[in-house]
Amino acid sequence: MINIDIGATAVAILTLFGIYSLMAISLNLEYGVAGVPNFGQALFVSIGAYVAGLTYTRLLPLLAGEQVIHPCRGTMGQALQLRSEIMATQPVAGFINLGFTFLIAAVLAGLVGFAVSYVTLRLKEEWFLALVLLVGGEIARIVVRGADDLICSHNGISGVAQPFYFLDDPRASAFFFMLLALALAAIAYFYSQRLVHSPFGRMLKGLRENEDVTRGLGKGISLARAQIMLIGSVIAAAGGVLFALNTGFVNTNDYVVTLTLDVWVMVVLGGVGNNRGALLGALLIAIMDRITQIAAIVLNMSGSPIEFNYARFILFGVILLLMLRYRPQGLLPESPLTTDAHEILGRVRGR
């Protein structure tokens, strides 16, 4: 019988919740609010992870005053040892490197999201963007995997430690990293709420509901969609950085189409167009992830021939189909009111 540490499990789930929340809020802004179908969410998450792999192997040693050791091939072990020593003994260098990682990832992901969407969304069929991003994510993954000097090809980069690695207590380290993930998720949530309830957010909803009417009002359709893709891409890249730090490993196999499917399940399950729904969907998927991982370990220890890890893909697919069939608005449907104007008008009429 496996012994489950409730405290460690709760920290792991909340950490995943923070990371998944960034991904879900990103997609909800793009598709739920603006109606832009993004089937390349894995692309923007992977940009954050790949940047983390590069900065932790090339930039971190320089910030710590050390020589850069090539992270791949014959010097892989030396580079790993150097990274671990720096993260364990020089926390300031680790935090500065993390700040640069977020900045570089945000700039790259934002530029990619803006450029691709601005070009493709000028076409009449917006679903062309979905296909471009879906294919683009796979192309990026294959290119990175084939480039030996980026993240060591199929071997990946290990030892990408989270910034609280220097703490002697692993529990404390995991706890503070959880707080960091939740804090960034909270910032993204409150920013997204303000954006949704702003004139720009209402314009995006109008664009989602009726593009012709919105264009007739003189709004810049292509630019608005490109702007929301830029914002969503930046948030997704931040989630990618945290995802890489949480696993401590950067490998292209983690950023396949199934990751995009997971994020779509979060948004559809929680409620399309509702940021609270995105958070709910992220929490439910984080819990399901941990449950399926524990179930897989229990089954393997009992000698069962069933590979339960693959069952999660079936489960998520069934959830997505059931929600689309019976509750397409999600568990927390989007509110039809986006301003206080209705409430204020009601009070004025009641006088």
What structural keywords apply?
single chain; 351 residues; mainly alpha
Structural description of this entry:
This protein is mainly alpha-helical and 351 residues long. It has helices at 6-33, 41-63, 76-89, 91-120, 127-146, 148-151, 170-196, 199-209, 211-216, 221-247, 257-270, 275-301, 311-326, 341-350, and strands at residues 157-158, 249-250. A two-stranded antiparallel sheet has the order 1-2. Helix 1 packs across helix 12 (275-301), helix 2 runs parallel beside helix 5 and helix 7 (170-196) runs antiparallel to helix 10. The chain is globular and about 60 Å long.
Brief summary:
This protein has 14 helices and two strands; from the N terminus they run ααααααβααααβαααα.
* Order of strands in the sheet with most strands: 1-2
Low-confidence stretches: none
Largest sheet: 2 strands, antiparallel
The end-to-end distance, rounded to whole angstroms, is: 68 Å
Which structural class best describes the helix and strand composition? mainly alpha
> What level of helicity do the residues show?
over 70%
State the total count of DSSP E strands. Answer: 2
* Overall geometric form: globular
Number of helices: 14
Share in β-strands: under 5%
Average pLDDT for all residues: 86
Tell me the series of helices and strands, N- to C-terminal: HHHHHHEHHHHEHHHH
How large is the radius of gyration? Answer: 21 Å
